[in-house]
Write a structure and sequence with these properties.
Blueprint (H helix, E strand, L loop, with lengths): L2 H25 L3 H21 L7 H8 L5 H18 L3 H6 L1 H26 L4 H10 L6 H9 L4 H31 L6 H32 L4 H22 L4 H19 L2 H28 L1 H4 L5 H31 L8 H9 L5 H12 L5 H32 L7 H29 L3 H23 L6 H26 L4 H34 L3 H13 L3 H21 L2 H42 L3 H27 L5 H19 L10 H6 L9 H10 L1 E5 L4 E3 L7 E7 L1 E6 L2 E6 L3 E2 L1 H6 L6 E4 L3 E7 H10 L1 H13 L16 H4 L2
Antiparallel strand pairs: 1-8, 2-7, 3-6, 3-8, 4-5, 4-7
Helix pairs in contact: 1-2, 2-3, 2-13, 2-18, 4-11, 4-12, 4-13, 4-17, 6-7, 6-9, 6-15, 7-9, 7-18, 8-9, 9-10, 10-11, 10-12, 11-12, 11-13, 12-22, 13-17, 15-16, 15-18, 16-18, 17-18, 19-20, 21-22, 21-25, 22-24, 22-25, 23-24, 24-25, 26-27
Amino acid sequence: MDIVLITTVIASLFLVIGAAEPLAARLRVPYSVILALLGILIGAGAIFFLRTELTDALNPVAEAILGLPIRSNVFLYVFLPTLLFQATLGMNLRRMLDDWVPILVLAVVAVVVATFSVGYALSWTSALPLTACLLVGAIVSTTDPSAVVTIFRSLAAPRRLARIIEGESLLNDAAAIALFGLFMGFVMLGVPDPDLGEALARFPVLIAGGALVGWLAARLAVRLMALFNRHELAQISISVALPYLAYIGAEQSIGASGVIAVVAAGLTLNLTGPGRLPPQAWTNLRELWEVLAHWAGALIFILAALLIPRLLESVRLEDFLLVGVVILAAISARAVILFGLLPLLTRLKLSPAVERPYRVAIVWGGLRGAVTLALALAVTESFRVPDDVQRVVGILATGFTLFTLIVQGSTLRWVITRLGLDRLSPLDEALSRQVVAVALQTVREDVARTTENYELNRDTVRSEAKRFGERLEAAVKSAEESEDILDRDRVTLGLIALAGHERDAILARVRERTISARMAEQVLSDADRLIEGTRSQGRSGYQRAARRSVAYGRVFRAAVLLNSRLGIPHPLARLTADRFELLLSQRLILRDLGTFIDGRIRRIHGRRVAELLHELLARRLEAVETALKGLRLQYPGYAEELERRFIRRTALRLEEREYNMMREDGLIGAEVYTALMQDLTARRAAAEDRPRLDIALQRAELVRQFPLFADLDAARIRRLGRALDTRYVNAGDVILQKDSPVRSVFFIASGAVELETAGQTWRMGRGEMFGQMAVLMRRPRRVEVRAIAPSTLLVLDEARFRRLLNRSKALQKAVRASAEKRGIAPDDLFDGTGDSLVAEKAP
């Protein structure tokens, strides 16, 4: 075929892609629906002109269109890895982990349920073997939620809901394609009735193998990219090779799922890339992948749609009945998950609540697209699949895809409107009025400065200022006197605005490079949690998200166990260093939020709301300072090294600004500027490296700071440091329960605890101990000890504590004082020489 003609056809397809997006926006239908319709029209038109006798002039063009090398391997090996890899790079994985339960339910459980529902429904109503029916079920289980996500975003739907659907779109295709490969093997082997237990047993192997290959490939790629730290194009080129090599490696080398390998590679790069690559290189890499994915997604839709007229040429009347069965079974399976299983998980507090209107929209928004057609094409191309199975699979997959695109896609926005999801809530309407009022105040100040600088006509300025002032006064009055807003709603609005400004401040700091890209994602995730928590639960949601941002998470606790039980310190060292930098970044941001409260929020919501926000902000800052103080105490000197790094990076940013100003003023030429920037880039690369944290706890230094151990010599302090274990606890964690036997004594290195017994409570802080009375008296104490702040405790077992007590006068004095405070006679604990008698008195 003429290469010029093929090139012309492909270039024309890009023109169609360019015109499709504005056309979809004008017609208010999903972009994928327009692409599919255009592809069907092009394919049908090519067949018509090739077979008609009206004219032969367009035959070469029609032949070029129909002769395009559209094969399933092109979709599966070229386009699909691109789409999946970009989806993983564009996700906020830390926020996805908050909703992993509903994402997995919608993606994996729903795929399995839909596959078997469709498969058995077809088996009961058709003459196809069960394996072929299950193959159809796997094919039609691949969803394309991009349409509903796009519409939800345009309607300002909750971010959490859009994030859940995005997570589903990623894992859904991976799970469905893995099942497709499983049942495709049975069909090609001619197995009519497979052993489903064996089939499902192989399913985890496919996933685990693909995940391992993808993880290893991404780790190797990240190492290579880190070696080429100053060569951005080399790093981006490696990222382009990564998904394809992972896909082929998994499929061809170990027979695992290539789709899972691509997803695992993308997730690994998303988690590790920001900390290993320069910020600008990471930004450019993601932007390139967005463009590649846009082209790949559009081309796969159009090229797959070109095949639809040919796939439907042999359709029969009874096929329409089977398509109806597939439609009913697939929609029913999705509805069972969303209206049956998901509410159950919500009641068990394993999933966030998804309101009924949104669940209806998700059911109706489960569009199918090019992936479904590509899998169907793979079946029709296989010579090992019987001809009758090829025909029916192609027709059923195509018919179901057309139904979802044409019927569901064209009516999705109408359904959302009927459900009332396009209307703002009273709180959102109040928030919009607040935004208008605040924006207009800022605009007035900027316009006043502009008119003064340009010395415009005073009468004109006065006239326009009067008009603008009237609009501003009306906006402020509307924001202040809205009857829809209660006082607690004003607090909620103020907190949403505060959290939004915090997010903007973080982005500004990232652009200035005073917050590293490694920490930016975590700090931004915390800010998003503040916004979403406030929108859903008001003030309590804000406080809960704030406490979570400084708490020790499950991953941190797992790293502690790895270090203490297995002697693997590297995860704990990395997470502790991350925690140091995170707390310093949070403190940096929080200290700048007070001016926003006074300058913006006070104008709209008044003094009382502003004072309350100042109080909440002060509590957050205090919690951050407390957590940071504990780390400073445990690792003296490391926080100072991070602060020095921050100062160096700030100085480099200011130096770069001066060079840019000098160049703009013509004081230096391009050659001098390039040389200066090269030197600055080298120094910035050195400043980006974070100092290493020695996780070998400096317990000796820590022990010396305890007044209780003041009279111990250096050798005993070293031995004590080796004997002490470290325990991290979150605020609210119960350390000792009532009536439980106590076998250790706890020393508070940082943080604070609260003791409660018989309705009375008292608190202890840094340098104090608890548990000693229960150990010495050999009986359970009716005291519950709970952490009231993230705390670091040093734990000493009973035997070592007794030996230490007999040697330390300072510790004996502290124990005596504690006993007297609790009404226990010291003579019951010590003899005249100070030695413990409890061991001898105990039965």
